[in-house]
């Protein structure tokens, strides 16, 4: 892996973030997020920058005083498998601890990646904040095949 930095996103990163997400959305690996939504939530995002290029992105969304969620985690196609996803999740874990969250969750098609980072697979019904606050509005609610993973901080 080349030299890289994990840092909070800025407005100037939004187009790059959108590009990375769209590629993975088209492959069916992430649920869609619109460009206006990304601008609105840019303060939640962190990016990995390598050689002046944004190569990965991910967001920390806060649900309650206890619980946060990793959202829109994606590594640019050609940089997958080089440790950037791990670096980003480690940053999101550190940020979650820094602001005092006790639990961090994700809904994912790649639970094994999260297991490597100390998350465990859980029944999504133990996360009512997410299920009742967000999932019920999702078109995939009744046939969701994402897996819930959770890390206690
Ligand atoms: C999943 C994703 C974020 C992983 O990022 P990455 O940079 O490729 O992964 P890393 O190189 O940091 O891998 C870290 C560890 O997870 C493992 N891993 C990564 N992707 C994996 C996968 N698809 N299946 C199983 N294990 C995986 C790696 O082997 C590595 O294991 P190690 O601890 O033994 O070294 C990236 O592949 C991606 O963007 N995928 C498409 C979008 C997506 O699924 N996002 C997650 C939504 S929550």
Write up what this structure looks like.
The two termini are 27 Å apart. The protein has a single domain, classed as Aminopeptidase (3-Layer(aba) Sandwich). The protein is an alpha+beta fold and 153 residues long. It has helices at 14-26, 35-40, 84-98, 111-115, 128-133; strands at 5-8, 45-50, 53-62, 67-75, 103-108, 120-122, 147-152. It has five helices and seven strands; from the N terminus they run E-H-H-E-E-E-H-E-H-E-H-E. The chain has a seven-stranded mixed beta sheet with strand order 1-2-3-4-5-7-6. Strand 3 and strand 4 form a beta hairpin.
Number of strands: 7
Distance between the termini: 27 Å
The CATH superfamily title: Gcn5-related N-acetyltransferase (GNAT)
List low-pLDDT spans: none
Q: Quote the CATH topology.
A: Aminopeptidase
Secondary structure layout plus pairing:
Elements: E1 5-8, H1 14-26, H2 35-40, E2 45-50, E3 53-62, E4 67-75, H3 84-98, E5 103-108, H4 111-115, E6 120-122, H5 128-133, E7 147-152
Parallel strand pairs: 4-5
Antiparallel strand pairs: 1-2, 2-3, 3-4, 5-7, 6-7
The structure holds coenzyme A.
Give the structure's gist in a few sentences.
This protein has helices at residues 14-26, 35-40, 84-98, 111-115, 128-133, and strands at 5-8, 45-50, 53-62, 67-75, 103-108, 120-122, 147-152.
Give me some keywords for this one.
Aminopeptidase, 7-stranded mixed sheet, alpha+beta, 153 residues, binds coenzyme A, 29% strand
């Amino acid at each position: 892996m080349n030299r890289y930095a994990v840092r909070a996103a800025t407005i100037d990163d939004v187009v790059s973030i959108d590009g990375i997400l769209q590629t993975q959305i088209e492959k069916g690996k992430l649920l869609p997020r619109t460009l206006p939504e990304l601008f609105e939530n840019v303060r939640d995002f962190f990016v990995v920058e390598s050689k002046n290029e944004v190569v990965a992105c991910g967001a920390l969304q806060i649900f309650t005083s206890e619980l946060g969620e990793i959202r829109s985690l994606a590594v640019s196609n050609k940089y997958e498998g080089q440790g950037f996803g791990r670096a980003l999740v480690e940053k999101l874990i550190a940020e979650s601890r820094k602001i005092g969250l006790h639990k961090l969750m994700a809904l994912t098609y790649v639970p094994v990646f999260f297991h490597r980072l100390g998350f465990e697979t859980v029944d999504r019904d133990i996360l009512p904040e997410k299920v009742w606050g967000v999932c019920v509005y999702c078109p995939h609610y009744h046939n969701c095949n994402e897996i819930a993973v959770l890390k206690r901080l």
